[in-house]
Amino acid sequence: MAMKEFVISEAQVETAVLVGLITKTQDERKTNEYLDELAFLAETAGAEVVKRFTQKLEQANSVTYVGKGKLDEIKQYIKEEEEAEREIGMVIFDDELSAKQIRNIEGELKVKILDRTSLILDIFAMRAQTANAKTQVELAQYKYMLPRLQRLWTHLERQGGGSGAGGGKGSVGLRGPGETQLEMDRRIILNRMALLKERLVEIDKQKATQRKNRGRLIRVALVGYTNVGKSTLMNLLAKSEVFAENKLFATLDTTVRKVIIENLPFLLSDTVGFIRKLPTDLVDSFKSTLDEVREADLLLHVVDISHPDFEEQIEVVNKTLADIGAAGKPVILVFNKIDAYTYIEKAEDDLTPRTKENLTLNELMRTWMARMEDNCIFISAREKINLEELKSLTYRRVKELHVQKYPYNDFLYQTYED
To answer: What is the pTM of this model?
Structure first.
């Protein structure tokens, strides 16, 4: 019988149900957009989304996240699907759940419960390649698990315990207060976390040494929301093969490449993408990956202009940059995916005010260029549109920075053609 789990049967794709709330700070449009993103995260993790539930509430219910009626509705749906032999694998909630909420929801729905954070962690664990990323992911997972340990051990009573002769159920060697499995687990996890933190400090030192040895070159970092095309752009600029695909968090490890434009060498790094509602301790464990961003001289902030909510994504990135202490650096806004940009043309007789859905690409370009002056460019990495312009803009910026930072370093090579 023990061999059973090694027999590879046709892999069943797990099905998932999504749950989100419409609150006073998050209208229906936004909730649907967050759920789109959650669905994309679920697909990236290998699950298939079969249904979504939303509920209007002032704020999340502290016991079950959604109201009782909504929970019953979800429970009913899961039951009906099961009877039709369509097993629901998990229910994913769009916000971070507390241990209490997970316990209560699990008790009601009797399926695997995930929240946005545990889903992101799951993808991170899938994506982590190097020792550094693996360590950071493991640390983030423990940070997430610690406050939620309780629900794993509700079935265990105290071990030992009892006191004195015959009092309580203590046996030899186990008298005294006893220790719950929970406390043991907590201790094991805390020890493990301490170890991981030490390891990260070591890795940090190595990375810092590597950075020191990179010579007198200006550092440029690609930053942006997840899935905006940073890695594709990196491949084009550095003529390298960095893993790029249409998935969230395809890049966890920072890749650094030396790039030469005309006669100017500089370093370009591709970093992990940011996302909305990313819990702080997750950002915390990725501090060392984000050092490249903190130490960069220039940021290329890549934006997916074809995304309906790109302005909010810009804000999320700016906020995260401020959180890690990298605000205030020179930035070039690189609007990517202009080939995929769509807008809704308004009918002649439509007199309602135009919204940003009705802006043509040209109008959008003009407004952003007016705001950002020369530090803003529109490209398509996939269709290779405007890449030369991007290169020459980057060249000008990097050259200015280089001359300020290393005034006596006559670094400039002869141009390659010579």
So the answer is: 0.77
